[in-house]
Amino acid sequence: MRTNVLLLAILFFAVSCDLLNPDSKSSDSIGGSTDIPINTVGTTFANNVSTGSASYSGNISITNVSSDGVATVKFQAPIPTNIPALQGIKPKYKDASGNLVCEGKFKMTDEGILDYNNKDHKPFVLVKYDAKVGDKYTLEKSDGTTIVREVVRKSSTDDFYWNGMIIKTIDVEQSSNIPGVSNITYFCNHKFGIVAVRVNMEDGTHPQLNVVPSKY
């Protein structure tokens, strides 16, 4: 069971860092101020991957914020050596001990989140806090594939249990080019940013990464 949980944790990191190379709304820009607590150097994110009764944690932290407000987020986690699916992770994403070490780029503002973690490092809207259900954001990659993100749900009342409280979320579903993964759902909140990421697997399981920023 622990090996399976480790695999799921690495999958989340791989999705964020694009390690496995897997419309009417603007898909490449957001407004708002980046001068917010979750977008500052030193912010860490308590996290755990949950699947059934098991869980696993890695390390997530902001190590730099550029002059234009783009945060560098560092991910660290052990990589199981006996799982063939993980052997395709490139050596440049590993430390001397063979553990995963990668960085993602995010621009987090009081109006939404933009990420640059696709194959071409293009800016791509992850969520806009004023979004409506049905809004779509599309990214065409240089390899000919397309990623689509769609707002599939937006709370009208506090209904999502998170970190000991109940909050509102905007739920964004992302298409998947990763074998075995049907799609990915991001649960976002206007104050706390990304609060959970659920990977909807083709086998019917739904492992979930829960995230809590140290500053908000």
The number of helical runs is: 1
Number of extended strands: 15
Measured as a percent range, the helix fraction is under 10%
What is the top-level CATH class? Mainly Beta
From the structure provided, what is the oligomeric state, counting identical versus distinct chains? single chain
**Tally of domains:** 1
Order of helices and strands: HEEEEEEEEEEEEEEE
Largest sheet: 8 strands, antiparallel
The value of Rg in angstroms is 16 Å
Unreliable stretches (pLDDT < 50, length at least 5) are none
Tell me the CATH architecture.
Beta Barrel
SS-based class = mainly beta
CA distance, first residue to last residue: 34 Å
Shape: globular
Q: Which strands sit side by side, in order, in the main sheet?
A: 2-1-15-14-13-12-9-8
Question: How much of the polypeptide forms β-strand, as a percent range?
Answer: 35-45%
